[in-house]
Give the backbone structure.
Amino acid sequence: MNNRITAGIVSAAIGLTAMSASAGISAAYVGYGSFQTHAVGYSSNLGWDSSAAITMFNLKLAEHKWEVGGSTVYSWCAQLYQGVTAGSVYAFDVVELEQAPQSPPAPGAMGIAKATLLRDAMSRFLDSSGRVAATVGASDAASAAFCALAWEIIHENVSTTDADVAKARISLSTGAFRASLTGEAASIFSAMVESLGVGGYRYVAAEGWNSPTAQDQFRLVPAPGALALLGLAGIASRRRR
C-alpha cells in the first residue's frame, strides 16, 4: 500500500473518531431501518415491579439511519417521549453512554448499571455497523427485539446501581416500561435477556446523542479498524470516479 493511500486511511479514521468524541454533531435523519410494530407503554412514575395498568400504543421498534459527515450511521432511540422526522437535520451533544438520555422529559441519564447492561447487549447482538447481527435472527424481528430490550433497560425504574440486580428486574409485563412482543421478536428478546452477563459483562465503545428538542439516541462506536476500512472504501470510490 503506497504512502498516499495509507495517509488517506489514517486521516479518514482520525476524522470519524473525532466525530464520535466531539462535543457536538450535526446529523441528517434518513428514516427507519429494519423494524416491526408492537404495542408499547411507558409510565415514568411506576416502580420496576408495578402491575398497574398503563396505556399501550403501537410503535415502530426500529433502528434509525442517519447521514453524518458524509457517512451512514445507525443508532437506536434512547427516549420515547420525543421524536425525529425523516429529512430533518438535528444538532446533538455527543456524551458518554451513561449520560444519555437527558431530561426532561423522562427517563433521564441511565447511569452505570443500565449502561453496563446496554453495552453488554450491544457487544453481543450488534455488528460493527451498529445494526443487529444477522446471526441473531430475521432482521426486522431482531431489530424489534433489541429495541425493546434497550427501551426496557433505559426506561425501567430498576432502582439499583448493581447490573445483576438490574438484569433480574427486566420484564416487559411489569414496571414502568411495557411491551407486548409477538412471534419471533418475543423469542429473540427472551434469548437476549438470558444471554446478558453470561461469562461476565462485556464492554463496547458506545455513545449517546442528546438534544433538548429531539429524540435522544445511542449507538455503538465502530472500532478503529472498521474506521480504517471505511476510509479505504471511500478512497477506492473516489479513485474509480
Remarks:
- Strands lie at 24-42, 57-68, 71-77, 89-96, 177-180, 206-210, 217-220.
- Residues 1-22, 225-241 have pLDDT under 50 and may be disordered.
